[in-house]
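Hi support team,

I'm opening this ticket because the web form for multi-chain structure prediction keeps timing out on my end. I have pasted the exact lines I submitted so you can reproduce it. The total is 514 residues across two entries, so I didn't expect it to be a heavy job. Is there a limit I'm missing, or should I split the entries? Thanks in advance, R.K.
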Amino acid sequence: MSEFLWVIIESTIKAVIILTLIMLVYGALGVYLERKISAWIQNRIGPNRVGPFGLLQPFADVLKLFLKEDLVPTAANPTFHRLAPIITLGVAVAVYAVIPFGDYVTIAGRNIQLGLAPNANIAILFVLAMTSVGVYGITLGGWSSNNKYSLLGALRSTAQMISYELSMGLALVGVLMVAGTLSINQIVIQQSNYHWNIIYQPLGFILFLVAAFAETNRAPFDLPEAEPELVGGYNTEYSGMKFGMFFLAEYANMGTSSAIMVLLYFGGWQTLVPGGWFGFEPGSIGLALLQFVSFFIKIEIMVLFFIWVRWSVPRFRYDQLMNLGWKVLLPLAIANVAGTGIVSLLLK
Amino acid sequence: MDLVGLAFYFLAALIVISAAIVVFSKNIMYSAFSLMFTFFGVAGLYVLLNADFLAVTQIMVYIGGILVLIIFGVMLTTRITGVDVKSNSLGKIQVGIAGLLSTIIAISLIVVFSSTKWFLSEPKVSGDSTKLIGNELLTNYLLAFEAASVLLLIAIIGAAFIARRK
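Hello R.K., no limit was hit. The queue was backed up. Here is the completed structure from your submission:
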């Protein structure tokens, strides 16, 4: 019984820490960076009133969202209207169950993994499965609002996510063939000493990157919420914290995609500088902290890239989007799988 | 009760309740959506049986693929044609036939279940079922695997042909 209790306590503590991190790093810091960088790119100043350098702006935003009236349109389906943002955010957070934030720490003789289930054998498949479930929140949100713009946005989003999921999955197969495992932690461990997978899978990385942009509905693939055409897309009829949940889920998804890219192609929690420089032993808290910080620095660099692209590249047309997905990315992804197979067979 | 037992009863309740909603709900959208929880519950049972690969495949194929199509069908037909798609209560004859058939199936299942001698062996905890499945599919069951892929290819070509024909 004590073992059972220990598992529950450990998982709860980890889950609370991970959720807080998602809210703070992806929600607060993500929104702040987005607003600040878009301001720089457009030659504005950006938020600078709340707190030093406007750093507390996201908290003011969230407070405002909490205080706003929560509207449900009369013609909407209230059950699904309430459920949709919960599903979207829940799925976005669920992916973190399998993401390792570092190696292990030895506390009081126990090896504690940094992550809820980082050694799951099917971690990558789980991530893909969760992204495919993510379609539901957006679809239901758009449909239940009973609004033409919402439904159109939801349809676009779903069509886009289903189309790009295919090339995303196939781009991943390249990494899996190099690594020979589906466990994310194993893939990270294989990338020690800076043997990052990006060296072996450059084409696969680019394909995954493009697909990730489409999968997270970010510009230049933000057709589901194209403001000039669709008002706001699937979240047009949402207000208050329900809108906030959609918003947070978008940033959490961006963070998740960045995290997956870092884990699979950029060495994940492998430290940026060798841990030996500071004399850290494996399993010590110092090394774990270094890994954790390295991981988040890498993620933030990817997030900055996402934001940079959003404010620099114009939106695609819908037919261009579908052509790119099916006629360019998919054949390239299949070619990448075939090429990886041939090369690894020749090197054997 | 241990953790596995607790998880099993939770999942079983989830499956039964959500399946009941699928069958009894008048609103077909609720039925379609409730089916998602049934699929999730079944995936959970696979996890309890150490079939992690099967569980994730269940989520990807049934929830991520098939159910999305069902929900799309329900959503769009209701809105475009203006006809509410609802599962109305059927006539007495239909209910009678369906009830009779279900009773026969239920009785035969119970008979089979109680008359079978179950061989309960300790589950071999081999963490990596994915590797085993992959190796088996590409060696012993290669023919069936290829036949299935050819079948799917034919289905895709057929679907594209029907969709293209105006």
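A quick check on our side: Chain B has a mean pLDDT of 82. Let us know if the file doesn't open in your viewer.
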